[in-house]
Amino acid sequence: MEQETARDSGLARGIGPLGMAANCVNYTVGAGVFVVPAVVAGFAGAWAPVAILAAAIGQAAITWCFAEAASRVPSSGGPYGIVEAAFGRYWGFLTGVFLYCANVLAAGAIAAAATDQLAALFPALGAPVARAMLILGWFTFLAFANLRGAGAAAKLVEWATLIKLAPLLLFLVVGAMLVEPANLPLPTPPLPHDFGRALLLAVFWFSGVHGAIGVGGEVRDPARTLPRAVIVGMSAVTLLFVGAEVIAQGALGTALAGSATPLADVMGRVSPALRLTMLIGAAISMTAWLASDALNTPRLIFAFARDGWLPAWLSGLDAKSRAPVRAVLTHLVLVAALALGGSYKRLALISSLLLVAIFLLSCLAAGRLRARNVARAGPPARLPGLVIAVALGVCVMLWAGAQATRTEALAMLALTGAASLWYAAARRQPAATSSPHASSHPR
């Protein structure tokens, strides 16, 4: 308890149940729902809905683990604090490094995809200078929004979630009427060669709860709010994603794999106005996702600085809003740089592999936290079937991780080695160099 108190001291607990549920939805529904159905179909063909369902089942188990674990350890940094409480500082630190790298890559991917969507609407925005100005302008707005504090940023997320869900619900209703049963044949063995890659990308599509709980140090009554918000939010997302894949496949058939804007192409079969609505909705959804990222991921930088892993000045709080302003600004600068030079598919696949490691460690941590009866914010949620959820989540993530290419696996090993060296070097630093707010426990 001492460590979490030090890490989160000074933060304002201004996020309630509605804001947290909206954060879970908004942080999961980003670019993926508008892009991934076609990419997964390109990898898996008729097996694409199966890949999505497999990812949904695995993510449901992972969400169940996160729901209970977050109620036990509601700390800034989300999985970083959860794994640390279960297995110690090294594994927590490693999870934190993986988590930040995954989040910043995902944010860069979605920012790049958002600008591409806007360029499809307004071709002039595709010019390099205009694209750069668009990215920098949006991140400047996010910086100002987050400087007002977590409560104000959560309100932005709530409104953004309501706006972005409207065109998606319209798609589910209208698109369902366009489904041709012949476009949804029963898949027959063998599995496509790239089925595993499809599943790995689907893991990225369903991810979000891991980042949403990163703001746990600023949630009111976290032991009750976090598990309820996580379960409600991810249930809604699962229905949306499975529905989107099935409808896109059923409406477009084999043309789905070659579509750059699959949901918009489905709606375009009804009217050009509906296609335009989906393109606008896609741009709004992606930019809204970045609002959730700007709320959540900087808290990991803040937590690392409070714990002495990063320079102490990054843990600085604004005197009025009590927001970690330096961490927010640092993160937004890094994401903007990635967005200026990256592509969605490349960044998303790298992020997916990091998420597999995070989910694997977090599932195991949930079981260990219950076994040790850890409860750092009052009586925790004790969800039924946790042992089954841990086993299922671990199995699905091990299988998904096995789909990595040799190059991706070597990159993961290199990152793990670099993080381990960082950890060892930081442990040898004199205590005076650590943040004054960091835990008094030895590293």
Write the layout of secondary structure elements.
Elements: H1 2-8, H2 17-28, H3 32-44, H4 48-72, H5 79-87, H6 89-121, H7 128-147, H8 150-176, H9 195-206, H10 209-212, H11 222-252, H12 262-268, H13 272-296, H14 298-306, H15 325-341, H16 344-371, H17 386-401, H18 406-427
Helix pairs in contact: 2-8, 2-11, 2-13, 3-4, 3-9, 3-11, 4-9, 4-11, 4-16, 4-17, 5-6, 5-16, 6-13, 6-15, 6-16, 6-18, 7-13, 7-15, 8-11, 8-13, 9-16, 11-12, 12-13, 14-15, 16-17
Write a brief caption for the model.
This protein has 443 residues and is mainly alpha-helical. Helix content is 72%, strand content 0%. Residues 431-443 have low confidence and may be disordered.
Overview of the structural elements:
Helices cover 72% and strands 0% of the residues. The chain is mostly helical and 443 residues long. It is built from 18 helices and no strands. The longest helix has 33 residues, at 89-121. The two termini are 16 Å apart. Mean pLDDT is 82; it is low at 431-443.
